[in-house]
Amino acid sequence: MIVGPNHFTVITENLESTLDYYVELIGLQPGPRPDLGFDGAWLYAEGRAILHVYADRPIPPGVAGVIDHMAFTARGLKETKARFDARGWKYDLRQQKGSGTWQLFSHDPSGAKVELDFEASETL
């Protein structure tokens, strides 16, 4: 029986730029990672390792494959948008019809599509 998501894994050929994206722009925190015998990182949100980064293999062709994107619940829309704008990082921001949820879509340095979902009550 599934009780919820555990983690996502992304592959990168440039660990530094990938960590910069997920830590400095998105707001995940680097944390402990067991010795798995290859380079990479585990990134945390509220004490849970939710993103694993592999930095030991080439990115396969067809980056997304059958998975279209990964989505994270987020806080701090105004601050997040300001970080993206300050860096000139391309994104698409929209407010979902009906629920009013703010959705910020972007791509990480390796091409993975990332969605950040913010409460409708957040303001720009």
Overview of this structure, please?
This protein has a single domain (8-57, 68-118), classed as 2,3-Dihydroxybiphenyl 1,2-Dioxygenase, domain 1 (Roll), CATH 3.10.180. 18% of the residues lie in helices and 32% in strands. The chain is built from two helices and eight strands; from the N terminus they run E-H-E-E-E-E-H-E-E-E. The strands form two sheets. The protein has a four-stranded mixed β-sheet with strand order 1-4-3-2, with helices on one face. A four-stranded mixed β-sheet has the order 5-8-7-6, with no helix packed on it. It is globular. The chain starts with 7 loop residues before the first strand and ends in a 6-residue tail after the last strand. The mean pLDDT is 93. Residues 4-119 form the VOC domain. This is Dioxygenase.
Morphology call:
globular
Q: In the residues, how many domains can be counted?
A: 1
Task: Kindly state the percentage of residues in helix.
Answer: 10-25%
Query: What would the average pLDDT be, to the nearest integer?
Result: 93
What class would the helix/strand composition place it in?
alpha/beta
Low-confidence stretches: none
Q: CATH first level: which class? A: Alpha Beta
- Spatially, the strands of the biggest sheet line up as 1-4-3-2
SSE pattern: EHEEEEHEEE
Q: Any idea what the CATH architecture is?
A: Roll
Taken as a percent bin, the fraction of beta residues is 25-35%
GO molecular function, one term: dioxygenase activity
Keywords: Dioxygenase, Oxidoreductase
Pfam families: Glyoxalase
Organism: Variovorax dokdonensis
